[in-house]
Structures are given as C-alpha cells and as structure tokens.
Amino acid sequence: MEISNSFAEHAALYFFASIVIILGISSLRGGFRFASYVETESSKTREVFTPFVSIIAPCRGLEEGLRENLVALFHQNYPAYEIIFVTDRADDPSLNVIEELRYARKDVSPKTRVVIAGAAIDCGQKVHNLQVASAVAGPDTEVFVFVDSDARPHAGWLRSLVEPLSDSKLGATTGYRWFVPSSGGFASHLRSVWNASITSSLGAASEKNFCWGGSTAILRARFEALRVRERWQGTVSDDFTLTRVLSEAKLPIHFVPNCLVLTVEDCTLRELFEFSNRQLKITRVYAPHLWKPVLLGSLLFVSVFFGGVVLVLVNAALGRLHWLPFLIVTIIFALGALKSYLRWRTVTTVLGPAAQLPNTLLAHVFLWPAASALYLWNAVVALFSRRIEWRGITYELKSPDQAVIIPKTSNE
Question: 406: which strand partners?
Fold first, then answer.
C-alpha cells in the first residue's frame, strides 16, 4: 500500500524520469558509435595528399600557453606550408611571442609572415582577421587551414587534417578542442566536462558535423567558389557561418579524430560562465535548431535528476520509502557516467598521455550532471541576451549576418 501511494504521489516525476532514462540510453548508444568511429578513422591509411597549405592563425592578446601553442605550428610533419599570423593591431602583445619564434626559425621551414588586419567595423574581429589573411595568401596556396591560438596540435595534425581533402566530394575537414586544466580547480575541470559533451556529437554522420574554427581545412578553390570571405561579412562566428555555407551547398564536413587538439589552460568561475554563456548565445543566433534541444533537454534532465535527489533526501529525512527515486537517480547517473567515461577513454587514446591525467577522468565521470545544469543556465541566459564579449570586444548579435560592435565607454 505504501509503495502504491508513493508511486501515485510522484507519478509525474517517474513519467519524466522514464523519458530521461530512454534519452540516456540513446545517448550512451551514441557514445559507442562515437568510439567505434574514432577507432575506425584513426586506423585508416589514406592517399598521400600534401598540397601547399597556408595555416592562418589569428591572435589577440596573451593567453596561457600561447608560446607552446604557436611552437606546435612550427613542428608539423608536413612537407610544404606557411604560417600566416594575423592580428588587428601592430602593438598587440601576442606579436612579441610571434616575432621571437619567427626569429628563432628564420632560416628554416616553414616560412611565416605577420598580417596586421586593422580593427573590424561591422563583423567579429576574428572574422575580419580571417578575411584579410585569406585574401593575401600567395598563389601557391591550395588549402586554407584555420587554427585558434589556444589550440596545441600534435605533429601529425596538419597532415591528418589535409589528406582527406583528396576526396573532391568533401566540403571541409575539422577537428575539435579538448580542454585539459593546467593546474586544476573546479571551474577548469567543469569547463572541460562541459565542452567535452559536444565532442561526441561529431562522427560518421557528415551532414550533422560542423566546422570548428580552431581546426578546420578547406580547399582554397572551394573556399573561393563558395564566396566564404564575402559570406563572413557581418558575422561574428566564422565556423557556424562556414558550416552553413557548406550545408547550403550540400557538401559534407568530415570529422578527423586525429585532429582533436588540446587546449591546456585554467579558468576562473567568472571565465567559465563568460565562455559557456557566449557559446550558447552564438548558438542561439546561428543555429537555433541546436539551441532549443539544449534548453528543453537540460531543463528536463535538471528537473528530474536534481528533483529526484531532493526527493530521496527529503524522504530519507522523514523516514519514508525512497528506494524507487534512489534507483531512478542512480540509473540516470550511471548512464551519464558511463557515456562520459567512454568519451574520455576514446579521446585520450587519440590525444595521448597529456590528456590522461587521473583527475581529469574523475571530473568527467562525476561532474557531468553539473555540466548539464550549466547548459540549462547558459540556454536561459541566451534566451534573454544576445550580447557577448570576445577577446575584450563587446558585440550585439542582431542576426546571423549582422553583428554590432559596442564601443567602450570612457570609464572602461
């Protein structure tokens, strides 16, 4: 009788919990598909395809690990490429690091150059930098590769990213970022877990893949034919815009697991919220079909999981039956923890020892519910605001094709 009364009292919770469990099983299956794809792709032997490449590396300011990240660009196992460093002003602090590295390797490959793009007027500064740098690439360049200054690619990254482009049916190739805290801390680990959930959405379904601007390659001829430089005008998100252009042209985006790259740095709680809020605001403007499921899915999960935890604690305190909600919460947690472990094991197998620190595994297994709660917060914030700050510049995202730069006030 007590069991039936308890079930009747919380029938709504159990109903929605069943939905969350079904979604959790589906997500876990997706994790296994991701692991299988990574294993298959990583073991493929591809046709040798090494055309001349221009790596375009936009930089702004000094960030943790900048020198190590840029050094990695100089040590790629690739026969012929150049690095175009681009920033918006001649006194940018990153140029001191860039010039030191250029001077140390002035007589060896790869050749490098620096482009000062000037301040953006009606688009994102990074987008403006990419527009200018891609326009000045030399006639020998056959492939554009875009890389972020917080990415630390391994020596085989460039070759792995370019070789699949020998298939003329591909629109572009992409990798993705994997955060690793440099010294630890709750916020840094939570950012890593938050970002990791996006990684396993990439895979064999090329029509669902997206370009990540920190590790993307595209044939120059295709870039020009699709008028990507012009399509970037007025935008803040270079990668969402490129993804949309390729989707409209019905050209697939190939995810290359060997082009996952490390971002080794810490963050504060403030920086975590700023970063994650910015990502969801951009997603809402450029890909609302992705933002809506995040909002609804995280709302459902947070309500059921954390509501279930509260119910277990209250029932336990009152000496009432609580085994059923406890079982439900345990099942939901176990499904997510297994998915997180599977993803961590898969990615760290590719990235190697630098990403296999024991405390990162614990964070991925235990912090994923907190990451889901953070997604809910981000999605709600994106519902009410389209203003972001990126590398010290504030933008108002009016639409996918219109970004307004907000001038700094005199007291800023």
Answer: 394
Taken as a whole, the chain contains a residue count of: 412
State the average pLDDT over residues 65-88.
95
Task: Give yes or no for residue 335 having a pLDDT over 60.
Answer: yes
Structure token digits, residue 255: 């995810």
| CA atoms of 10 and 325, how far apart (whole Å) | 9
Tokens of 295: 């909002």
* DSSP letter assigned to residue 86: E
3-state SS, residue 161 = helix
- Give me the numbers of helices (H) and strands (E) for the chain, helices first please: 15, 12
Single-letter amino acid code for the residue at 268: T
* CA dihedral sign of residues 265, 266, 270, 273: positive
Looking at residue 321, its pLDDT comes to: 65
CA 223 to chain centre: 22
For residue 390, the Cα-to-chain-centroid distance in whole angstroms is: 15
- How far is the first Cα of the chain from the last one, in angstroms, to the nearest whole number? 65
**DSSP code at position 152:** B
* φ, ψ at 399 (rounded to 5°): -165, 175
Distances (CA, A) of 366 to 262, 290, 363: 21, 25, 5
Burial class (CB in 10 A: 0-12, 13-18, 19+), 306: middle
Contact 316, 302 (CB under 8 A): no
Residue pointed to by tokens 């032997």: 45
Fill in the DSSP letter of residue 47. Answer: P
What is the C-alpha to C-alpha distance for residues 82 and 52, in angstroms, rounded to an integer?
8
Please indicate whether residue 159 or residue 405 has the higher confidence score (pLDDT): 159
Read off the pLDDT of residues 223-246 as tens digits, 9 standing for 90 and up: 999 999 999 999 999 999 999 999
* Structure tokens given for 20: 């969350």
Pairing label, strands 215-219, 172-174: antiparallel
